[in-house]
Amino acid sequence: MKQEQQNQQPKRMNPYVGLLMGILIILFLNGLIVPTLTGGQIKPADYGTFIAKVDSGLVEEVVIKSGQIYFTAREGNVTSAYQTGAINDPQLVDRLLQAKSPNKDGKIAFNQIIPRENSPLLNFILMWVLPGLIFYLIWRQTSKAIQSRMGSGGNFMSFGKSGAKIYADADVKTTFTDVAGQDEAKETLTEIVDFLHNPKKYTDIGASLPKGALLVGPPGTGKTLIARAVAGEAKVPFFAISGSEFVQMFVGMGAAKVRDLFRQANEKAPCIIFIDEIDAIGKRRDTGLGGNDEREQTLNQLLTEMDGFDGRKGVVILAATNRPESLDKALLRPGRFDRRIQMELPDLEGRKAILAVHLKKVKCEKIDMDVVARATAGSSGAELANIVNEAALRAVRMGRNKVITADLEESVETVIAGAQKKGKVISADEKKTVSYHEIGHALVAALQSHSAPVHKITIVPRTSGALGYTMQVDKGEQVLMSREDLFNRIATLTGGRAAEEVVLGSVSTGASNDIEQATRLARAMVTRYGMSEKYDMMGLETVNNAYLGGDTSLTCSSETAADIDREVLKMITEAHQKARKLISDHLDIMHEAAHYLLDKETITGEEFMAIVRKYQQ
Ligand code: ADP
Ligand code: MG
Ligand code: ZN
Predict the structure, then answer these.
(1) What topology is assigned to 165-342 in CATH?
(2) Can you give the residue ranges of every domain in the chain?
(3) Model-level pTM greater than 0.85?
(4) What percentage of the chain has pLDDT greater than the value 70?
(5) Binding-site residues, ligand 1, Cβ < 6 A
(6) Is there a catalytic annotation at residue 438?
C-alpha cells in the first residue's frame, strides 16, 4: 500500500477562469462590444449609400456609436445591416426624423450611444489593479508549473516546507530470503530489525542503537535490495529517497526537504529512512572549487537532523553508496552513520545462492549451478540476475518452456562477450589466424601448471567485436595471488600473439585487448603489489574509486614514473618470451588443436586437454 504524505491544501478557483472574466469585464467596460442589430452580418457601406437609403425610406434602425453609424435597411423582404463612418452632418437628425421607414410607425428608430465617462475609481481599477491581477495569476500558474517539474508541489514563496512528495511504503514485501549471500551484512542488520520489533529490550538496559548504517559496496551487490529487506523484515514504514532528489535548483530547498523527511518519519516512528546514493549530497566539503552552496546546506541539515532526533524513538537511517571514500567525515562519526556494512561482490557460494534465488522465479530443469557460478567469477548480483533473465529469454527463443543449463552458459557468454554474430563472414585466412591465436592462449594456460584450465574455446564472432575467445574458469576461489600466478597470467595473455608470431610469422590487430589487460596487470604488480625487485614494498599508486572501475593515480615522482614503465616493459617482455618458447616447443599440439578448432568452431576444455595429453605421454 502506498501512502501519500502531503500537506492538505484548500481547493482554489482555477485562476484561468478568473483571468478570462477579467478580460471580459475590461472589454465590456471599454464598450468594444458591437451593439446588436437585427440584420445579421454587418456589411460596410459609404455615407452616400446610407443617405440614399434613408431618403428612399428603406432604413429601419440607426445606431450611432463611437464614430460609426450602424443601420439596417429592408430591401424587398430582406433586412440587412450596414456600417458606415459617421460624418459631422448637422442635418442628419432632421433627415432621419423626416424620412420614411418600413417600420410600423413609419419612423426610423434611432439613437446615439454616448461613451460613458468612467468614474476615477473604476479607471484606477481598470488601469492598474486588473492588469496587475492578471499578471499575478499568470505568474502563479507558471511558477507552479516550474515547481512541479522540479519535483515538488506546494507553495513557491515559502521555503519553510518543501511540500515534497515523500512516499512511505508501509508494506514492503522484500525479506532477507530475497537477498542471497551477504551473510555478514544480514547479521548486522538483523540487530536493527530486532530493535525495531522490540525497542523495549534495548532501552530497558539503557542502550540506544546506532542511528544510522551505511551500506557500502560496488554497484549491483544488493545494497538497495537489502535496505528494503530490512523494512520488510521489521514490518515498518519505509521512506526511500535518493540523494540526488535533495539537490534542487534553489538554495535551501534541499534542506527543507530533509526537514520534511525527518518530520514525517518522526510521526511514523518506528520506521526506516533509506537514502540511496548518499554521495550525491554527502560529498566531502573541503574539495575546493568554492563548493556547492545548495549541497552543503542540505548536508548540514541532514547532520543536524541526525543529531537532533531521539535515537530511542525507533527511526533508523540506512544509506547506500559506492563511493565511500568521497563522503564527508562528519557523516561517518559516531552518532550518525556509525555502522558501516560492507557489501562485497559474491564469492562462488554466494553466486550459487544468488543464481538459486533468481532461478526460483523461472521455470527450469535441473541446472548445474556449479558450472555457471564458476564461469561468472567477478559478477555482481545484478549481473547474475540479468544472466538468468537472458537465459529465460533464450529458452523462449529456442521454443522451450523450461530453462536448461546450456541457456545459462550461453547467456553468460552473451553478457560477457556479446551475442553471437551469426551473419558475419570471415575469410578462411582470418579464421585460421583467430584459431591459432585462441589455441595459443589455451596452450600457454594449460602448460603452466599454475594457470587455470581452459573451459571453452570458440572462434564464433561476437557482437562485442571479439572474433573468438578462450574462457578460463578457476577451480576454486582464489583470494590470494602469488607473483607466479600473476606472471603466468600475463604469459597466457601474450600467448595469442605469440602463436601468431611463431606459427604464422606475422602479427595481427587481434591482440589489442590482450595487450591492455597484460599491461594493467604488470603495472599493478610493480606499483601496488610490490612485486618488482627494484621497488620492493614501495607503494607507487593509489586506487581512487575502489568500487567504480578502480582507476589509479601515481604517487611518485616523474622519474620514478618513467622507470616504472621500464619495469613493466621488462615484465611483459619476459612473459611474452616464455609464451613464445612454450608454443615453439609444442608446435605439434598447436597444429592439431588449431585444425580441430577450425573444424568445430567451438570446443570444450576437455576436448582440448585430450589433444594436449595425447602428445605429453
Ligand atoms: P545496488 O543498490 O547495490 O547497486 P541493487 O540492490 O539495486 O544493487 O541490486 C540490483 C538487483 O540485483 C536486485 O534487484 C537483485 O535482483 C539483484 N541482486 C543483487 N544482489 C543480490 C543478492 N545478494 N541476492 C539476490 N539478488 C541480488
Ligand atoms: Mg542501488
Ligand atoms: Zn587474445
Answers:
(1) Rossmann fold (3.40.50)
(2) 32-113, 165-342, 348-416, 428-616
(3) no
(4) 84
(5) 179-182, 219-225, 320, 354, 357, 381-382, 385
(6) yes
